[in-house]
């Protein structure tokens, strides 16, 4: 049981310069005894309102240096404070506020919400067990208008899809990774590096791009690049929900439409998912 959707803004001031973190937190506990379920005995139950207040107090006292460190703080607090807690899981996601720039100059106290992917993390721990930390990015919308195709696929009497060697590749990406044994990581730096890997693997070199023969291959390229560059990541999951675009037929309007006006196909849409990890992790 626990408390969902604890939303708040943490404002930090350094002189005239302000910093903000707006987050949404879910905190769930499992107690050493199920007596509240079986017997109606609430003597061990930490009220969900208390859980909410603890989250807010920790944000006030410790700040939010990174989502992962804040989630770890929450886990540590419940494990060290309440002997009746057998398991705690914390989910934290961030509202994507970025500092506003005017003529290239960063503003000291103004921000803009930029929906270019939502950062999130999870931390979970069993009593006498290891602390597990996961992080990720979701709702990241990506598109490239060429250097993508889909050919040579299996065909039978039900196949109507034509082969394409030049199409728009567009999708909404969800990516989640695990750190394995957590040490003194710079979580903010690692998250930014992984996001850069995702964008690089999707798009390719800025002057020419890189051909994608399928959504599946693009998903694998993202995972392989992250694992090759970020040693702290042990397992990475990527889900790419596809958005398709159809070229509008303008012949009746007396116009030739050379893939210049397209309409999105709202539903149904495709989805590709894969989980990839280091061999030593799976052997363990």
UniProtKB/TrEMBL annotation:
Binding sites annotated in the UniProt record for O2: 48, 242
Gene3D superfamilies hit by this protein: Urate Oxidase (3.10.270.10)
GO MF terms held by the record: urate oxidase activity
InterPro entries linked to this entry: Uricase
Sequence positions that bind urate: 48-49, 150, 167, 216, 242
UniProt entry tagged with the keyword Oxidoreductase: yes
Binding site for 5-hydroxyisourate: 48-49, 150, 167, 216, 242
Compartments where found: Peroxisome
GO annotation (BP), single: urate catabolic process
Example of a GO cellular component annotation carried by this entry: peroxisome
Documented EC number(s): 1.7.3.3
Primary site of residence: other
Recorded catalytic activity of this chain's protein: urate + O2 + H2O = 5-hydroxyisourate + H2O2
Tagged with keyword Ribosomal protein: no
Coiled-coil portions: none
Annotated metabolic or biological route of this protein: Purine metabolism; urate degradation; (S)-allantoin from urate: step 1/3
Keywords, alphabetical: Oxidoreductase, Peroxisome, Purine metabolism
Function of the molecule: Catalyzes the oxidation of uric acid to 5-hydroxyisourate, which is further processed to form (S)-allantoin.
Family, per entry: Belongs to the uricase family.
Descriptive protein name: Uricase
Organism from which the protein derives: Brachypodius melanocephalos (black-headed bulbul)
């Amino acid at each position: 049981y626990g408390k969902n959707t604890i939303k708040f803004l943490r404002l930090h001031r350094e002189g005239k310069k302000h910093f903000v973190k707006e987050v949404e937190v879910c905190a769930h506990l499992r107690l050493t005894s199920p007596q509240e379920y079986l017997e109606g005995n609430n003597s061990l139950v930490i009220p969900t309102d208390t859980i909410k207040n603890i989250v807010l107090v920790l944000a006030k006292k410790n700040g939010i240096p990174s989502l992962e460190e804040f989630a770890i703080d929450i886990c540590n607090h419940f494990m060290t404070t309440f002997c009746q807690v057998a398991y705690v899981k914390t989910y934290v996601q961030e509202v994507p506020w970025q500092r506003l720039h005017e003529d290239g100059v960063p503003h000291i106290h103004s921000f803009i919400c930029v929906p270019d992917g939502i950062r999130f993390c999870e931390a979970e721990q069993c009593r006498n067990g290891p602390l597990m930390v996961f992080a990720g990015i979701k709702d990241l919308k990506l598109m490239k208008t060429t250097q993508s195709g889909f050919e040579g696929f299996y065909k039978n009497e039900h196949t109507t899809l034509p082969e394409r060697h030049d199409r728009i590749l567009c999708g909404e990406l969800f990516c989640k990774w695990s750190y394995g044994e957590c040490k003194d990581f710079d979580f903010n730096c690692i998250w930014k590096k992984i996001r850069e890997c995702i964008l690089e693997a999707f798009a390719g070199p800025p002057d020419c791009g890189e051909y994608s023969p399928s959504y599946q291959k693009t998903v694998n390229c993202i995972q392989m690049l992250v694992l090759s560059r970020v040693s702290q990541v042990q397992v990475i999951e990527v889900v790419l929900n596809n958005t398709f675009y159809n070229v509008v037929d303008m012949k009746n309007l007396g116009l030739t439409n050379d893939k210049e006006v397209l309409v999105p196909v709202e539903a149904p849409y495709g989805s590709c998912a894969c989980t990839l990890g280091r061999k030593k992790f799976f052997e363990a």
